[in-house]
Each structure stands twice: as C-alpha cells, then as structure tokens.
Amino acid sequence: MRYVKWTLIALIVLFIGGFFHYTLPQHDIVRIVNTYEERQDIDGWTTLFWQEAGNGTVNQQSRDVQFIQAVRPNGKSIVYRNEDTGWGWPPYFKFDTANLYTEANDAISTKDNPEWVSVTHYGWRSEILSIFPNAIAIKPVSGPDARIIPWVNIIILTLLAVLILTLYRMWQQFRERTIEPLVEDVEDVLELADEKKDSAVDKVKRWFKR
User: Fold this and answer.
1) Secondary structure letter of residue 199 according to DSSP
2) Residue 53: is it exposed, middle or buried by C-beta count within 10 angstroms (0-12/13-18/19+)?
3) pLDDT confidence of 60, banded at 50, 70, 90?
C-alpha cells in the first residue's frame, strides 16, 4: 500500500511539474537564421500542443503556420512556431503574430556577424511528436552570455508555494478543531459500548453459574 501511495504522489508531482514547465515562460538566447511558413496537418492527440485555429477556415486541422529557425550559442538548432494564443490557454494574450514575424525577420543574422536575441516562449520541442515551442516575444541582448532573470516564474511559483502552505495550514487547523475531536468522541463511544458489552457478558455468565 505504501508503494501505491508514493507512486500516486510521484505521478501527481510529475504531472504538476510538467504542466508548469510547459506553460510558464522560458527564455532562450539564440541567433535567428531564418523564418518560413508551412502548411501543417494537425490531428490526433498532439493537437493539445497547438493553438486552436481561429481563421474561419473549413478545415481547421490543416493550416499555414509561421516558424522561426534559430541557433543556440552552443551551435544546436531550435525551431519555434509563431501562433497567437488569443484569449485561450496559456493566458499570454498574444495577438501580434504578424509583428513578431517581422521582428524575427529583422533580427536574422549570419554566423560571421551574429545578432543575439532572447526569445521568450512556452512549450516543448519534440522531433518525434513534431511539436514546437510557441514564441511570445523577441528582445535583443548584449551577447550569447546574456542572462535573463525569470521574474514572472519566480513570482508565480512563490505565490503558488504560499497558497499551498496556506491551504495545508488551514487543513491542519480544520483537522485539529473538527476531525480529531470527532475521532476522540467516536473512540469514547466505542469504549463505552465495549464496557457495557463486557458488563453484560459478565452478568450472563454469573446467571448461568447459579
């Protein structure tokens, strides 16, 4: 039973951690090398990793998606999709896909004359699942060694920790004030019933011994 309990706890922690890792903004220092637009056939359960189409087309599962190709300081490549989030989830309220596409094109640079930028995004990149992180913003930085402090993540995770501690404390107080007294009352009733039962048994035994 203990293994089942800890397995469930581990799965819950893994799910919550994965949710926040996918949803919270991340910052990559990269050099943009190209942008392009490509028709994507989006179907199956991987549609969870794409934004809902809102362009009014009949077949919303097949649409043109903008992409931004970049290279990290270590030479590894990364590809971002460029989609509006609108009023949906995650709540980034991104409506400037066209502007961001223009900024990305303007930031294209070569290996000999690099221009480094910070790409704010959410999501994961998986070649197997053909999913891409969604770029939210592009900001020029001083160089490949620039450091971005994730203030949004720090604030959100701090507030979440405070909320969890508050709820845990409220549960402890509720248990101490309500549940534990009820348990004690039940135990007292059971003990009293057990004493009465023993007394009745003793009376019956004495009666038969007469």
Assistant:
1) H
2) middle
3) low
